[in-house]
Design a protein that fits this description.
The complex is a heterodimer of chains A (about 260) and B (about 230).
Chain A (H helix, E strand, L loop, with lengths): L21 H17 L5 H18 L3 H7 L4 H13 L4 E4 L2 E4 H27 L2 H10 L4 H30 L10 H28 L18 H22 L4
Antiparallel strand pairs in A: 1-2
Chain B lengths: L9 H26 L3 H15 L3 E3 L5 E3 L3 H8 L1 H18 L8 H26 L4 H30 L6 H33 L28
Antiparallel strand pairs in B: 1-2
Classes of the chains: A mainly alpha (about 260), B mainly alpha (about 230).
Membrane topology (chain B): Multi-pass membrane protein
Keywords (chain B): Cell membrane, Membrane, Transmembrane, Transmembrane helix, Transport
Subcellular location (chain B): Cell membrane
């Protein structure tokens, strides 16, 4: 709940990946992820190739591997799920270290871990090199309805404020000697959520009036990057990632000599 | 519960994406009609609230902790359409800006965590509020039940997607039972938090609880000091 939460994934920098137009990066990451997800799980080498590609992008973007590794923790709940699969899935059993495991389950677990991890890494690289509001601008360029972009933008802008309110409530609770220790204490924490909603709602009303008094008529004034389409060169650079991934995938299809 | 990439096969993930887009497309004009030109700031701030409320952790048992999904809470407080938009936007931003949940699984996540929770919780909440006697206790009870049910419903929707397009063939009965059982427990936590949060709002600003509109709750019970929780 610390300040700067919304920017925590963004690593300020002026590298070649940072300066690419956000819309190019967004499309590239999406296309890359689609290629990864569409790759048959038996093509083990292809997944290694994808990882090498992402690490190469990280190196060019000067995103340290340690940063990526720490943020991969977000995947842990699904790793637990994947680990359970070999024990439950149908199909023929194989013996691994004395355990009877389902071969199908092992493949399934590998499929989830490999594709999930590559997807998170690709998203992390996008988030680490692109400011959040520019990602939203890229969505606008791609044709997402303005109202949704506005909602997302206002959410990002006020999230810090709302989270800081929550933190002040926590400090107020703790300075009165309260600490949540068991489920019965959830009621007190939940009442904070109720109070937080009232504060957020009333802030929304004030924000709306402030916007009106500054001439808001239902559309936000365009940002510098809104509607940016990107030139041919940035597109070529950005799309080299999914293109390389596609090449790796196709190489996996070719018969082994 | 944020599904990562590769969990559900491509065609089913695409279909879930189409369902999610359809749900959002239905919600946008209706949220606009409800909130008129306040739609963007109000839904934006409610989305920020849902995101922040998801960070409220409470200890469950054995060192594990639970947190709110928020679909039922948002729908009860601001209505099903604005609530759906707020939760869907939270999931979109989490996937794009926080790398939480796969980009190709966004449709799956919006369908199970925003669409299903709202579509299950809100009608159930309205039904309970209409059938129970008009009182703040009824609103609290209705919030508890609808939020509780919304969590296993969301899990079962996920099981359904997994059964049709899961990357693995697993015994469906066992999987359904396990997911359902775990999520009933999670749902109890969700229900408690949602009920207490709605009760706190009803005690102070009953006019803000969209799902309880048309009920005269002021006369139903006097405001007690400790219940406002606005003191912090």
């Amino acid at each position: 709940m610390s300040a700067g939460f919304a920017d925590r994934l963004y690593l300020p920098g002026g590298g070649p990946v940072h300066t690419l137009p956000p819309v190019c990066k967004l499309v590239a990451v999406l296309a890359f992820t689609v290629v990864v997800v569409a790759t048959p799980r038996e093509h083990l080498a292809a997944f290694g190739g994808y990882l090498v590609l992402l690490l190469a992008v990280a190196a060019v973007a000067r995103v340290p591997p340690g940063f990526l590794a720490r943020r991969l923790l977000i995947e842990v709940p699904f790793l637990a799920f994947a680990l359970a699969l070999p024990f439950f899935a149908h199909g023929e059993r194989v013996d691994v270290l004395g355990l009877s495991l389902s071969a199908e389950g092992l493949w399934g677990a590998w499929n989830i871990v490999a594709k999930g991890t590559l997807g998170v890494l690709a998203s992390l690289l996008l988030a680490a090199t692109t400011r959040p509001h520019l990602i939203l601008g890229a969505l606008r360029s791609l044709g997402m309805p303005g109202i949704l972009v506005q909602i997302a933008g206002l959410m990002l802008r006020y999230f810090e404020v709302i989270a800081a309110e929550l933190d002040r409530m926590r400090i107020a609770r703790e300075s009165r000697g309260f600490q949540a220790r068991h489920l019965g204490h959830a009621r007190v924490v939940a009442q904070s959520a109720g109070a937080l909603f009232i504060r957020a709602y009333e802030r929304g009303e004030r924000v709306h009036l402030a916007m009106l008094s500054r001439g808001y008529t239902g559309a936000m004034p365009p940002l510098g990057t809104d509607g940016e389409r990107g030139g041919a060169v940035p597109w070529l650079i950005a799309l080299s990632l999914p293109a390389a991934a596609l090449a790796v995938a196709v190489a996996g299809w070719l018969p082994v000599r | 519960m944020h599904a990562p990439d590769g969990f559900i096969v491509g065609p089913i993930a695409l279909a879930a994406g189409a369902v999610a887009v359809g749900g959002v497309a239905v919600a946008v004009p209706r949220a606009r009609r409800q909130l008129d030109e306040r739609a963007a700031p109000m839904a934006g701030l409610v989305a920020a609230f849902v995101f922040a409320a998801q960070m409220l952790n409470f200890p469950v048992a054995g060192g594990t902790s639970g947190h709110l999904l928020g679909g039922a809470l948002a729908a009860i407080l601001v209505g099903p359409y604005a609530g759906l938009l707020a939760v869907a936007i939270v999931l979109l931003v989490q996937a794009l800006v926080f790398a939480d949940g796969g980009l190709t699984a966004l449709g799956v996540n919006v369908t199970t965590m925003a669409l299903v929770t709202v579509v299950v919780a809100y009608p159930l909440f309205r039904l309970l509020v209409r059938t129970l006697p008009v009182s703040r206790a009824s609103v609290t009870a209705a919030a508890f039940v609808s939020a509780l049910v919304s969590v296993p419903a969301s899990a079962l929707a996920f099981v359904l997607l997994f059964a049709v397009g899961g990357a693995v063939d697993i015994p469906l009965g066992t999987f359904t039972a396990a997911m359902g059982g775990v999520h009933v427990l999670i749902g109890i936590g969700e229900g408690l938090i949602t009920a207490a949060a709605v009760a706190a709002v009803v005690a102070v600003r009953p006019d803000l609880v969209y799902g309880a509109r048309g009920l005269d709750l002021r006369a139903a019970a006097p405001l007690r000091g400790g219940e406002a929780a606005g003191a912090a």
